[in-house]
Design goal:
By secondary structure, the protein is α+β, with helices and mostly antiparallel strands. The protein has helices spanning about 1-20, 40-50, 80-95, 105-114, and strands at about 30-35, 55-65, 70-75, 100-105. Helix 1 (about 1-20) runs antiparallel to helix 4 and helix 2 packs antiparallel against helix 3. About 20% of the residues are buried.
Length: about 110
Amino acid sequence: MQSCFIKDCALVFFLIARCFCTERKFGMKAVITVVGVDKPGIIAKVSDVLYKNDINVLDISQTIMEDMFTMIMMVDMRSANNKTVSEELQKVADNMGLSIHVQNEEIFRSMHRI
C-alpha cells in the first residue's frame, strides 16, 4: 500500500516538473476551478481572460449552491503562457473575492487518484 502511494507521489512530482519547464507553458489541457460568493460577472471576467489568451474552453460545469458559485472548466492551454494566465486570473480572483486555480489536467487527475 505504501509503495503505491510513493509511486503516485513520484508521478505527481514528475508531472509538476514537466509542466513548469520550457517557457512555463502547459501545452495541453488544464482544469480551472472557480469558487466564491455568487455575484454578477464571474463567468464574464474569467472567460474574458481565457479569450484574451487564446484559450479554448473544452468543457464546463457551473452551479450555484445557496449563495456559493462553483465552476470547473477543462481548457486547451496549448497556445497560452501559464504564468501570464495564472497572474491574470489571480487579479480577477482578488477583485471579485474568489478562489481560482489553474492546474494541469494530468496533475489534477493524479492528485484525485491518490
